[in-house]
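User: My collaborator sent over this chain with a note saying "see what the structure looks like." That's all I know about it. Can you take a look?
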Amino acid sequence: MTDEQAARRGPDGLRAVRRAADLLAVLARYPAGISLADLARTTDYPMTTVHRILGVLRETGLVRETPDGQHALGAGTVVLAGSFLDGLDVRAQARPVLLRLAEESAETCHLGVLAGPLIVYIDKIDSRHPVRMVSRVGGTNPASTTAIGKSILAWSPQADRLAAAAEGSTVDDSVLATVRTKGFATDLEGNEPGICCVGAPIFDHAGQPIAALSVSTPTARFAAERVDEFGALVRDRADEVSRGLGWRGEGAGPALGAWL
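Assistant: Without extra context I'll predict from the sequence alone. Here is the result:
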């Protein structure tokens, strides 16, 4: 082993890997790009360190420099994201159900997973209406304010709920208790003004909440008096995906043990 290889495996090398990962995580929150100074300030890393790591990440295609001199994720991340999405069995299992839910609801439907304090959309079917929710696969939103996030967190262990509140958001246990009772969650303009959502969890074969389906509609088309009916539809479709993944529960209840 060369001295350089040994250094890369030592504490300094591990620290560099961690810092690179932190930089990528921040860049993911700024799709249009962020300046070197703001990136250093956000991560609390020395500007010279950030500049050096960005140079390596640019060489690998994971980072690019925009025409106005900002730093953003590069094309190499698309390859990684594609491999990640392709490896998610839940995405393949949910796709036909998501298509049917979009047809039944006539609204935008999402499949999302939990990622710390955020949910990540891993699939989406657009509404056929000209006015609809604007979102994208790979996009994120706070877990604590979204129907997808709340429906997953309601059956998640304490550590996941704490992680969801890591960036200053709050996870209301009484709200999650209601979600567990009904089997679905709502977001009535709590995350985005003018948009209402209903979401329900998807469980794996062991009864663990691994994803959620949601239906999103402009408030002008949202019938508040039919929220339970709408929630039951989303819950039934989410249960259908869960059964395809080997889950044998009745409704959302059996995963309660994973939350306690």
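A starting point for your reply to your collaborator: Residues 251-260 have pLDDT under 50 and may be disordered.
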